[in-house]
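Write out structure tokens for BTB domain-containing protein.
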Amino acid sequence: MTCYKYNGRDCDIILAVEGTHFQAHRLVLLELSPYFSALFTRWSSPNQIIYTIPGVAPYIMDYIIQYAYTKRIRITRKNVKDLLMAADYLLVNDVVRLCCKFLEKQLCPHNCLDIWRFARIYSWHKLCVKAAIMAKMNLPCRIAYSVPRLNLWPHSSLDSVGVCSIRRCQNCYTWLNREEQ
């Protein structure tokens, strides 16, 4: 369906996203995702033209519509999380995979716990495991110097990638005592 050109002409539907309207071709969006298949067939009337998409920022919807037509998308550090959440919500699996690959390439000791937590919430298993392994390799210094107290305790499930409890307790002790010094 990428033979359609996204130019706003001959479009047969309008997606309303937070007051912004996007014209598109129904067939292109049907090919993109099962979400749109359900939206156009089960969740609406047969002659409906305007469809409201909740929970997605207009700038992200623009990226997703452009992807539907071009199979290209610009993923950046600034848009990756919003794009990934929207693609997951809209069941645009190709964009989910591209965003996860982008985050995998960005993994480092400074962001591994944030990416791990984010991936864990949304059940992106492969990204979660890679971030957990990075955290395992760098956990001592990360806990001792930068993990806020309230976000420390959810990391106990890192046991699944082999972080030993004694080492984790020692790191927690070091981290908790650093503020008292």
